Structure formats: C-alpha cells, structure tokens
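Hi support team,

I've been running sequence recovery on a batch of backbones for a student project. Most finish fine, but this one hangs at about 90% for roughly twenty minutes before it completes. I'm not sure whether the input is malformed or the queue is just slow. I've pasted the structure tokens below so you can try to reproduce it. Let me know if you need the job ID as well.

Thanks,
M.K.
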C-alpha cells in the first residue's frame, strides 16, 4: 500500500513530526486505559461524581489521541500502536492495582495527565521549530482541552 501523502510539507519535516507524534499516541492510549481503570475500580462516598468525571477525562484523552493519530496519517505514515508497543513505550507510571478511593484515583490520573500535557508542550515546541505550524496548532488545541480536565481533577485534591 502506498504511504504517499500529498500534504505539501517537506518529507524531512513529515518524518520529524511523525517521530514526535507517535509517542504521544502511545501515552494517550495508555492514559485512556488508566483512566478507565480509575473509573471502574473506584469505591468512595463520592463515587458517582468522580466516576462520571473520569469518563469525561477518557473522552477528552480519546478525542485528542484520535486527532494525533489522524495527523500522522495526513503526513503519510502508518500508526504502529499495537498493545505491546503502547505498554512498553508510553512512559506513564502504572495505575495502582485493585480497588482505589477517590484520592488515590484522582492523584494517579492527575499525575499521568500532567505528564501527557508536559509531553504535548515539549512536542509543540519541537514541531514549531521543525516548521509544521498546523500540527503545533492541533497539539495546542488538544493541550487546552486536557488542561481543563487537569483543573477539574486537581480541584478535588
Ligand atoms: Fe462506564
């Protein structure tokens, strides 16, 4: 199958940007999985509010990850995000095993989300320097949405 992309960015920029975006897909998939674990394994007096909030985080993370993966495809490369690749390369700490209370769940997801946002910020700077303003803008939009969720979460701590 052809991986030709008619997107006018120079091939060197496409390759450089793709290499920055792929790890963001891995960490996004892992963060979504961890946030689902938090959503499912939560047990606390304020269960329902936190359970629902965690699913809003899942939606924001999932949407952002989808946008990043589709940007990679626009630049021509395939998405190499097998489960094995995701869990060996995401760089996020594992979510605690077993049942968790609200504080444990929110602390773990807040830390993982902050790490993902930091990775996005680093990516924005590098992609700007590489000369792809469109991808930098896409990541900026995603980061803004995730930073809102970060505020929702950490306001519980
Ligand atoms: Fe659910």
């Amino acid at each position: 199958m052809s991986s030709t992309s008619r997107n006018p960015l120079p091939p060197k920029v496409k390759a450089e940007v793709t290499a920055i975006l792929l790890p963001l897909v891995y960490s996004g998939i892992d963060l979504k999985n961890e946030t689902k674990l938090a959503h499912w394994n939560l047990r606390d007096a304020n269960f329902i509010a936190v359970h629902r909030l965690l699913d809003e985080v899942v939606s924001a993370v999932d949407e952002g990850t989808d946008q990043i993966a589709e940007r990679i495809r626009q630049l021509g490369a395939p998405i190499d995000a097998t489960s094995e690749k995701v869990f060996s390369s995401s760089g996020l700490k594992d979510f605690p095993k077993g049942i968790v209370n609200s504080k444990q769940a929110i602390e773990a997801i807040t830390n993982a989300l902050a790490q993902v946002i930091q990775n996005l910020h680093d990516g924005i700077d590098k992609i700007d320097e590489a000369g792809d303003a469109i991808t930098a803008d896409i990541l900026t939009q995603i980061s803004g949405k995730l930073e809102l969720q970060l505020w929702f979460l950490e306001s519980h701590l």
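--
Follow-up from support: It reproduced on our side and the slowdown came from queue contention, not your input. The chain has one domain: 11-154. No action needed from you.
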